[in-house]
Amino acid sequence: MNEKALKVLEFYKIREQLKNYTSTGAAKDLIEELKPYDNIYEVREHIQETKEAFKLLVTKGAPPFEGVYDVREGISRAGKGSTLMPGQLLKIAAILRAARRFQEYISHKEEEEGFRVLENISQGIIPLKNIEDHIFMSIESEEQVSDRASTALYNIRKALKDKNSSVRDRVNSLIRTYSDYLQDNLYTMRGDRYVLPVRAEHKGAVPGLVHDQSSSGATLYIEPMGLVNLNNEIKELMLKEKAEVDRILAYLSNEIYGSIIAVRNDADIIWELDFIFAKAKFASELNCTAPKVNDEGIIDIVQGKHPLIDRKVVVPLDVYLGKGFTSLVITGPNTGGKTVTLKTVGLLHIMALSGLMIPARENSTVSFFKEVFADIGDEQSIEQSLSTFSSHMTNIVNIINKADDESLVLFDELGAGTDPTEGAALAVSILENLKSRGCRIVATTHYSELKVYALKVNGVENASVEFDVETLRPTYRLLIGIPGKSNAFEISRRLGLADYIIHDAKENINSETLQFEDLIEDLQEKSVKAEANAREAEMLKLEAAKIKDKYEEKMGSLQNAREKAVINAQREAKRIIKEAKEEADNILKEMRELEKAGYASDVRHKLEEERRKLAQKLDKIDEKVNKVKRDDGEELKNVREGEEVFVPSLNQKVIVISKPDNKGNVQVQAGIMKIEVKLKDLRAVTGAVNKEEKKRVKREAKLNLKSVASSVDLRGMDSLEAVYTADKYLDEAYLAGLKEVTLIHGKGTGVLRNTITDMLKHHSHVKKYRLGEYGEGGTGVTVAELR
User: Fold this and answer.
1) Which terminus of the chain, N or C, has fewer Cβ atoms within 10 Å?
2) Which residue ranges are tagged as binding site for ATP?
3) pTM score, two decimals?
4) Which residues contribute to the annotated binding site?
């Protein structure tokens, strides 16, 4: 697609709007490269993916992209074997979690409608839950590695905490000892070492190492000799802590390096999905629909709106060509909306060919074009000494050299900027040449000669933008089939021009010309009404066909369910009969063995016993078969409206919506369908309580109290999801008998921490709560004590 058309039709503004709906910079880069695709297959597939994402947004809400970032740099570094920072590891883990959750998000029941294109994309996702869980367990925030990352780190930090406590006790003792020589009765830190602020004149009174002095020189920061060894021990522990943290980060980075292909693959898929859902969110915001795409040059845009005009004021328009005619000549007054019509047709096509849904009604149709050419606007160049006419003609020459039967050509004020007679003749010649090549053309003009051309030539149709003479304002409605009138006389009269001047002007125009224009206008209005009725009938026909297909599909699924139920019943019956035959064969075999042994009294007794077994077995088989039949429910003699009953032939519960007629037929509601069945085919609904009890028991069985962890990770969740997860976890922890639990929310902006704190204030299981201390996760966690 030529860049000039993308620029003139302002497609770059659409791309900028799309970027507002993405979560990652990688998706923004994909949007920056977005342009019309090269073949109709790709166009249809990308429109379908946008349509599927739109449907998922409506039915399931936003996709699970919370906490997803652009981590291309981190993945690139991991691919080279570098050690990543905690923040980079967290972001990569968030990508892996989003990829795994998206597979769950897009899953659906077998009988539900699928999402073919998005399912194909998500099939490439490789779940890496072990790496994901390991990172989230080990990394607490973008700067902090968790104590849980390793036993060694936990022990080091515990020792560091104890050592700091000892040093503080020792420092406080020294402050009391040297209080007379200190600037202030407090300690401070210099280079991770505890020091005392000693007045310069008393530096000899406090033996130790001088680490710093105040800007005035009045205060020296001295490390007392009694603290040197303790400070050294703390420094040693801090070095050990740093070494262990580096080891953990290197280990986690190496895990990513070991699965770098899968990580890179998952990230690429998530960024592509982010791009696709940005298109869907944009479509939702502008109330767009997925157009049909054909390769026959047929255009039928119904109630199309220009996406860059304020939705409160934009006027929808209907544009069609490609069936009865291939060229459309639009006339009408200035500021009437002719140029907007051109831009709307061009921009909606470029959007559709780029895989976007368009702001138009259902069943709108666009055609696949390899090129869209647009000569719109005044591009005169002072530097190149080009006039308006010259600049237009330069562009038109380029169009004529390249346009073919797979091109859409848009002309604004064709032939303008020169002598009207020559300009009109040139315009007709250009249109005729392009029409003969099979181009689809939409052109605007003021020339009456082009109206006549459209009336005379097959394959060319007039159109106009409506103008309200009463208010002297355009309505911006496009009327196909009606050539535009200048209305100069009427407008001049309403603006106050004297009648005698208008009368003299009319005298200068051939009366036959005026009558001819009035006659044409009358005929064209009738033609437009007929065309509008025909198009409306076609739309209704398409909608009826769509509804028919929908119900036939539903009937098919019901028929499949019925056949499946019959097959299952037959399979069960065959299994029962097979078991009975095997049992009977075994009993008969034993009976023959007994007969061979003779008929002693004890043998006859055994024979009778075996015969009794056989009879009991057959009775049980009969009982099972009868039970299968009875499970359909009790046959009903009468029903009432609104009653829930069971239809064995459909294997489905239905609602009765009418009383039996004289033929014994009853109308019932099965889902969204209303069907008619015989009263004798209905059965009473039984076993509902047992099913509910079964469900309840099943739910209770899921709670394994012994497996409840002592902490829950809420990072990356939004407030609602975090509160729900925390509440559910506290219930499980309370039932499991835990006394103290940890809620990990990270530091971040503090929004998630405040949300969790507000919830804990009023939770019935929480006795008290506090922020984590050093070694527990600090302000990145909240510790709750349960009742």
Assistant:
1) C
2) 332-339
3) 0.63
4) 332-339
